[in-house]
Design a protein that fits this description.
- The chain has 259 residues and is of the alpha/beta class.
- The protein folds into two domains: 4-202, Alpha-Beta Complex (Spore Coat Polysaccharide Biosynthesis Protein SpsA, Chain A); 203-259, no CATH class.
- The protein has ten helices and ten strands.
- It has helices at 17-25, 45-55, 70-80, 99-110, 140-145, 158-161, 173-182, 206-223, 228-247, 249-254, and strands at 4-10, 32-38, 59-63, 85-88, 94-95, 114-122, 128-132, 137-138, 155-157, 188-199.
- Strands 1, 2, 3, 4, 5, 6, 7, 8, 9 and 10 form a ten-stranded mixed sheet that branches.
- β1 (4-10), α1 (17-25) and β2 (32-38) form a beta-alpha-beta unit.
- α8 (206-223) packs antiparallel against α9 (228-247).
- The longest helix has 20 residues, at 228-247.
- Residues 5-127 form the Glycosyltransferase 2-like domain.
- It is an enzyme of class 2 (transferase).
- It comes from Halomonas alkalicola.
Length: 259
């Protein structure tokens, strides 16, 4: 029985998925299962994943019959997960070799049911662009101001929470999931050590940022059901922090917004 279940949605990920899977195979901690859910890919990624499945019985592939989005793909993996701990890794991101070992030890030594780590941002070629730190702890209110938990670093104890599924009525499904968990506990706890690498793409433009801001507002109002004034308060924090991180990164770092 695996101790950790790794949830990996995949859609047309042929360029990076082999590297992602290899980063799991390279983990110093070995009691895991990796559940990859193919979201109706049209490239060669399924064949690439199958090659790993044939080599290692800890890797499992689920294929969806239509393109359903990351939330439904992750939920399909969570549904069949056997591990006590649920961890997340998208098909273009990477883990460093001691990620699972160090994060699990951090959680078990302190009896933390929900934890995350710091991580690097990398470009399409794997070059490090910058660091995103992990605050020592965040509450529900803290997280509403800015989502400081990277999906590729989050891990929760399903024995404590039960299986928590991602909401499908928002494009900020990971953010919404962390908020759901933080309604059950006072804090999520951060291990401020770079243990993962998040891939950033050239086509991530200001238009994407505008869409993300709109989705954040929808999350506050439609998912969390915050009042207009409360949503405006938290959105102002989100907007100001985002502006400073983008336009004045040195100042943002001094204010603790980058690490």
């Amino acid at each position: 029985m695996p101790l950790i279940s790794i949830v990996t949605p995949s859609h047309n990920s042929a360029r990076f998925v082999s590297e992602t899977i290899q980063s799991v195979l390279d983990q110093s901690f070995v009691e895991w299962e990796m559940i990859i859910v193919d979201d109706f890919s049209t490239d060669d990624s399924v064949e690439m994943i199958k090659a790993f499945v044939e080599r290692d019985s800890r890797i499992n592939l689920i294929r969806l019959t239509k393109n359903s989005g990351a939330a439904l793909a992750r939920n399909a993996a969570i549904e069949v997960a056997k591990g006590r701990y649920i961890a997340f890794l998208d098909s273009d991101d990477l883990w460093l070799p001691y990620k699972l070992e160090k994060q699990l030890a951090f959680m078990q030594a302190n009896n933390y049911p929900f934890a995350y780590t710091a991580y690097d941002k990398i470009d399409e070629e794997g070059l490090v662009l910058g660091r995103i730190g992990a605050p020592g702890k965040v509450s529900y209110s803290d997280l509403l101001k800015t989502c400081s938990i990277g999906c590729l670093t989050a891990m929760y104890d399903a024995d404590f929470f039960g299986k928590i599924y991602m909401p499908v009525n928002t494009k900020r499904e990971d953010f919404a999931t962390w908020l759901k968990l933080l309604k059950e506990v006072d804090y999520a706890y951060g291990l401020n050590e770079n243990l993962a690498q998040y891939r950033v793409y050239k086509n991530q433009t200001s238009a994407n940022k505008a869409k993300m801001a709109k989705e954040n507002w929808r999350l506050y109002r439609d998912v969390e059901r915050l009042s207009f004034l409360t949503a405006t308060y938290y959105f102002s924090h989100y907007a100001i922090r985002g502006f400073l991180r983008t336009k004045f990164p040195v100042l943002a770092r001094r204010l603790g917004m980058l690490d």
